[in-house]
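Re: weekly structure request thread

Next one in the queue (531 aa):
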Amino acid sequence: MTAPVPLHKHLLVGTARAPLPAGLLEAELAGAAGTALDAPGIAPERRLLLAAGAADLWARAGYLPPPAPAAPPSPSAPERQPACPLPAESILRRLLQDGHPPSLQAEWLDLLAGKPARLPERFLPDVLALATRQPGLRPRVHPVLGMRGQWLAALEPAWAWAARRQDDAEVQQAWHDGTLEQRVAALERWRHVDAAAARAALESTWPGEPPENRAALLPCLGTGLETADETFLEAALDDRRKPVRQAAQRLLAGLPGSKLSQRMVTRATPLLYAEKRILRGTRLVVTPPAERDAAMIRDGVGDGKYPGLGEKAGWLVDILAAIAPSHWSAVLNLSPDECIALSAATDYQEALLLGWTGALQLHLAHAPAPELLAWLEAWTRIWLKADGTVRYQNASAFVGAYAALPAPAVHAMLLQLVEASRAPWEEADAALAGLLHQLADATPAPWPADLSHAIARRLLGALPVLSARQWELRSALPALAAVLDPAAVLEAAHQWPGLADDPHGWQAPVDQFFHLVRFRHEMILSFQEPA
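Done, posted below.
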């Protein structure tokens, strides 16, 4: 039997030697026990045993004594940002309910930051909980939390990611004493401020870091990646854990002029060359690696998984993916269009396209040089004309290459593609609609007005004549409604006669398209009103 210390002492001593106090039980338990212990004429012995029995039953039921009262937190600092406009606050309430695409929540936060204003206090717990579940929203939540939001986040451990930004001393303390998530965040911030010092800190703890820590911390060097990081990353290629080696391989492959890139170029040179034939033109000669030695394994050759490709063709993909595609147009003396077109006449077209596309995604993320953009433009022209199998096989890395670019560059390239297409679109333009669909899911809203107007004019004009089998165009409607500039779409719709005849069942998806466009239009306008 367990009981509070005073009860235990009275049971040992006995009621004859120590009178019972008035409050035998804690207030919460005494209230639950009612008046049974204080009935008139009850003997002290009976009162003590009843109290001990009640305490024992309470403990068996899971009762824990209340903790000592904690000191109340200090009040929040005064707000510095203006309040959210009331119409926008009403939109947020609707967005936090089910039924709206997650991208709209991100767009609402971007609009609030652009106002600039802070989140409404009554929605702080909901937004903090949402961004805890969806880490992709966190960079958008930080700028609009306000002082109250930072104060509230500090009271809940799960919301620690949103607490006040740390100064340099606090960053270093989090690096030395924090959880793994806190240390990753601290190292990322440190790399922004002083990349060399952050790398030195990681090097100093590296030998004692558990494997899972090394795999989580090493990718942080991608922030502010510089030549001085190469020696440390080269050493990480010998790590016993594959995720650590793969992180080092990706970073080194994206570092211009790295030794890993040079080794890959040396390996690739005899595997791919252009043969100039006088009568039959130029052809690409492709020879996959005959074997894989320990040095190739160390550099990640063979780590990729490519269903449908043979083992050696997969090695070729891994080698090409580490070399900027502009290297091949320079070495082979061929334009990007020629390189990609000539790949179709080889037995290794799929391997070549996968390797070049993966390399584009990797290198565009580090430096969108003009020669790389020329490769992306050439690949796009051929990708749009290719059959569905080629587009499907390369879709992920191809869209990733676009998403790696700054938004203005993506929008400018897309506008060129759309303006060069027919107006209205026809069934042959389904591949372009599919590309726009995938990029709508990978890039932030809203897209520029001129691009949005051009897309809407072509898309709406095509709907009355397109068959129900145009699934790429049909499935693109919700994604485009979430990113196109609403005002530009509604302007294009003024000149659109609508669907007088609807033999192919487009009315329902078109209604949903305009419902989302109008909702976003209302959301954007709600931020134009005063708080």
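The radius of gyration is 32 Å. The longest strand covers residues 272-277.
Next request, please.
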